[in-house]
Amino acid sequence: MPGLFLFYLTAAVTIAGAMGVVSHPNTLYCVLSLIAAFIGLAGLYLSLSAEFIAIVQVVIYAGAIMVLFLFVVMLLDLRREEWIPLRLPIQKFTGALIGVGLFAVILKVIFSGSVLTGAKGEFPAERVSEIGNTQVLGKILLTDYLLPFQAMGVLLFVGIIGAVVLARRRAD
Amino acid sequence: MIVSALLFAIGVVGVVVRRNAIVVVMSIEIMLNAGNLAFVTFGRFLDSMDGQLIVFFVMGVAAAEAAIGLAILILIYRNRESTDVDNLNLLKL
After folding, report:
1. How do residues B38-48 score in pLDDT, each as one tens digit?
2. How many other CB atoms sit within 10 Å of the CB of residue B25?
3. Full DSSP string of A80-144
4. Contact call for residues A156 and B63 (beta carbons, < 8 A)
5. Residues A83-134 pLDDT 10s
6. Does A42 touch chain B (CB under 8 A)?
7. CA angle B9, B41, B64 (to 5 degrees)
8. How far does A135 lie from chain B, in Å, by closest CA?
9. Which of A50, A99, A160 shows the shortest C-beta gap to B67?
10. How many CB pairs lie under 8 A apart between chains A and B?
């Protein structure tokens, strides 16, 4: 079962990367382990036969967004700040407690059997792989989802302008 | 699904525990990706492509959000010489 092996391997990489982000004191290593987590997520998408999303995950998330994060980390020189003691010593314990509790609640919902009961769609995996994942996605994107697609373009444009306006130095 | 739930929980812990604003933003990205994974899984098991399309839109929104968030972070750092979220207490009485 190579598919199952791929799933467990990439799931382990993803979870380990995410844990690294939350637990490592150095921000730079946090960014690097987040990249590992995103590449693991791309593998998970592959094992769910979502090839286009997997490629986009690697290119956009692990490529573009994480380069942005790396730039900011290197611009800001954050080496010295983690040595201040926590203002609330109970904070770490409370955080872990919240995380475990939330995980338990979500697990309860998953195993209650009420998820995955909706009507079946018209694209089973065999048919999609026959036509080609990207082709199906593109067709739906430019027909049923045309308006959100255009709105996303506007949103990204506004995002670019906003980032430039915010980060530019005041001319005074 | 379980991986997605675990990923979301880790993201929430990151937001609560860490005080470095950049790590908080990265934890938010982890939570977004946990949601994406859940969408793709649902789409796979319900034989629908809508999950993958929504993931596509979420990625676009996340890119815009990361750009704006990091610009705000740079601005904060320039003004306060720190990205520690505990120092951002100007609204405190």
Report:
1. 888 877 777 77
2. 20
3. TGGGSPPSSTTHHHHHHHHHHHHHHHHHHHHHTT-SS-S---S--HHHHHHH-HHHHHHHHHTTT
4. yes
5. 555 555 676 777 778 777 877 777 777 777 666 666 666 666 666 666 777 7
6. no
7. 65
8. 11
9. A160
10. 207
Q: How far is B7 from chain A (nearest CA, A)?
A: 7
Minimal C-alpha gap between B35 and chain A (Å): 12
Q: How far apart are CA B15 and CA B28, in angstroms?
A: 7
Q: Are B40 and A53 in contact (CB under 8 A)?
A: yes
For helices B50-80 and A146-167, give the axis angle rounded to 10 degrees: 10
- What Cα–Cα distance (Å) separates residue A4 from each residue in A9, A33, A67, A69? 9, 23, 31, 32
Which of A53, A78, A156 lies nearest to residue B64, judging by beta carbons? A156
Q: How large is the average pLDDT for residues A2-11?
A: 77
Model's pTM, two decimal places?
Answer: 0.81
Q: Does B60 touch chain A (CB under 8 A)?
A: yes
Which residue type is seen at B20? N
Q: A128, B48 in Cβ contact below 8 A?
A: no
Return d(Cα A48, Cα A7) in angstroms, integer: 9
Residue numbers of B between 25 and 54 with CB closer than 8 Å to A: 25-27, 29-30, 33, 36-37, 40-50, 52-53
